[in-house]
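So, read this over?
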Amino acid sequence: DDNVRRVTAVFAAVAVALPLVEAALKPWFHRARPLLNAHTFSFPSGHVAGCAVTVGLLLFVMLDPTWRAVTGRIHEDAPMTRGARTAAWFACIWATSVGRVFADRHWLSDTMGGAA
């Protein structure tokens, strides 16, 4: 089906583009990590960016029109409400951000940049 191919193509394009964008931005910002012995740059957080984009795309597929187009179930509503999708997206970003900050891998601003 064309809709499934389109959604798959978007997922594939994002999966290729996100690490390339992150790899280009880290040396440009040249921000040190909180850990003293770290040899890579910190800003933006790739984990948080990956979470924001991946979960965001998955939740986008669950929007009513996209869900109907992808599944072919014209009369079925999406499995989650808009508020539940938004809450799940923020919860994933928050949990990943908190984990990265408490593990001393990123500053808070690094995780905020990754989420943006």
In short: The CA atoms of residues 21 and 53 lie 13 Å apart.
